[in-house]
Amino acid sequence: MGLDLSISELALPLKHPFKIARGEETLARTAVFRVRHAGIEGVGEATPIERYHESIASVRAYFEANPPRSDDPFRLEDLLPETIPAAAREGLDLALHDLIGKFLGKPLYALLGLDPSATPVTSFTIGIADPETTLRKLAEIGDHPVLKIKLGLGSQREQIETIAAIRDRYTGTIRIDANEGWSVQEAIAILRELERFEIEFCEQPIPAGNPAGLRAVREATRVPIVTDEDSLTARDLPRLIGCVDGINIKLAKTGGIRGALAMVHTARALGMKIMLGCMVESAIAATAAAHLSPLVDWADLDGPFLTADDPFSGVTYSHGKLILPDAPGLGVRERVAA
Fold it and tell me: Residue 274 half-sphere exposure, CB side, CA atoms within 13 Å?
């Protein structure tokens, strides 16, 4: 009984154009992994990131040239070496964890020894848009308790006025994410202006690769600083000691569950807070990440909120709180077409 691996492309149209400091998209494309063994199928998802020179084509090409190293799905050390590129490893990692959970009849959170009731509330992300569109999106969101607002484009005044307009209508928690869109000086100036709006934290204010710049921003403002592009894997964290308040973990960057767990434990050892994030992806990857969420302080697992036609279901939400499926493995199901 070997491992049968297949990879297919999934197109996910978005409810609204999603714009950040680096670009805009109306359609997300991911890769769905299916691993079959002993009559059981495990499902995973890879979300390649163009910034790191990954694509669905590169994911497929990797496994065409490098088939899985073992026929035993439990041999994770052999099957998921760090030499596999992150997106390709993520897809296989998630599918194997789903397969193992189904084989054992246990949800992933149970395999990890986690309490499914200890999940956090996720934020809902609003991409960069003109003031009218931003406020219309805010009205659609209603009373969701945590928002993450994308910044990093436009003048300093325009960005500050965006947050002011939102805060004028919204009393919940606000997080912001500049996606590397500011210089150190811009970040300090903008964040000082935003302090009065009770911002929970700012994610990746400046371009990655400048820990000293992050430290300067952190020391100059009362808004806590969290990294994303600066914290891809556990190996990135020691250089950030004293420079940030927390990190963002994404399965697409860590290469799946195993890499994310290593990052969680490293961050805790270094005294850092943790957010668990996602890409624009289907319920497969978002649900896999949600199973880890009892380990973290903050969640930003809103991928299923952003897509218009997700063929999979899994994690659900109760006023923003993540509700984990209790089915074996990831607990993800394919929706039946009407």
Answer: 26
Position 128 scores a pLDDT of 87
> Which residue, among 308, 320, 249, 250, has the nearest Cα to 282 in the 3D structure?
308
Q: How far apart are the first and last CA of the chain?
A: 35
In order of their start, the domains of the chain are 4-105 (3.30.390.10), 111-334 (3.20.20.120)
Residue 165, CA distances (Å) to 135, 140, 147 in order:
8, 15, 14
Close Cβ partners of 78 (under 8 Å, ≥ 6 residues apart): 69, 70, 72
- In 3D, which of 297, 272, 299 has the Cα closest to residue 287? 299
CA 55 – CA 61 distance, rounded (Å): 10
Beta bridge partners of 6: 34
| Tokens describing residue 177 | 């994410």
For 237-247, what is the mean pLDDT? 98
178 within 8 A of 205, measured Cβ to Cβ: yes
When pLDDT is averaged across residues 244-264 and rounded to a whole number, the result is 98
* pLDDT at position 133: 86
What local confidence, expressed as pLDDT, does residue 94 receive?
A: 98
Q: Mean of the per-residue pLDDT values for the chain? A: 94
> Residues 274-301: what's their mean pLDDT?
97
Of the two residues 17 and 12, the one the predictor is more confident about is 12
pLDDT band at 217 (very low <50, low <70, confident <90, very high): very high
Q: What is the DSSP string of 157-210?
A: HHHHHHHHHHHHH--SEEEEE-TT-S-HHHHHHHHHHHGGG-EEEEE--S-SS-
166 contacts 7 by C-beta, under 8 angstroms: no
